[in-house]
Amino acid sequence: xxxxxxxxxxxxxxxxxxxxxxxxxxxxxxxxxxxxxxxxxxxxxxxxxxxxxxxxxxxxxxxxxxxxxxxxxxxxxxxxxxxxxxxxxxxxxxxxxxxxxxxxxxxxxxxxxxxxxxxxxxxxxxxxxxxxxxxxxxxxxxxxxxxxxxxxxxxxxxxxxxxxxxxxxxx
Length: 171
Description:
Layout: H1 6-30, E1 39-54, E2 61-76, E3 82-96, E4 101-114, E5 121-133, E6 143-153, E7 159-170
Antiparallel strand pairs: 1-2, 2-3, 3-4, 4-5, 5-6, 6-7
């Protein structure tokens, strides 16, 4: 059984919140009269974090500190179709209860496409999380989690494609 670290859950919630913010921004932009050119909005945010993680590979809790950097980019093309990309990168270092040192890297990307006139929609979320124990003679102390989610709705609003894949392993 794979236990998804709390960090992955936090990132999924954060990506969902960013998607909501992009949706609200899109509604605001769509309220303008149609124009013959694309409109583009790009924003970014950098925050720090202090959080405790549990390593399923070592059975230890790890206090991690680091930085989260998110870039959101939305383009509404001349046809009114919205194309949005969120890219989030998290990096940090930490120490376990036993004094073991770790580094942490998390990369998530979300792509969405929404046509203006019908419910056709597709979204892809991909991510990789790596938790590496420094100086360990045992390679199975490292954790790597890969996530892939893809969904497509047709013009009738029916789900025509769905991929939900999460893999985690001690490497």
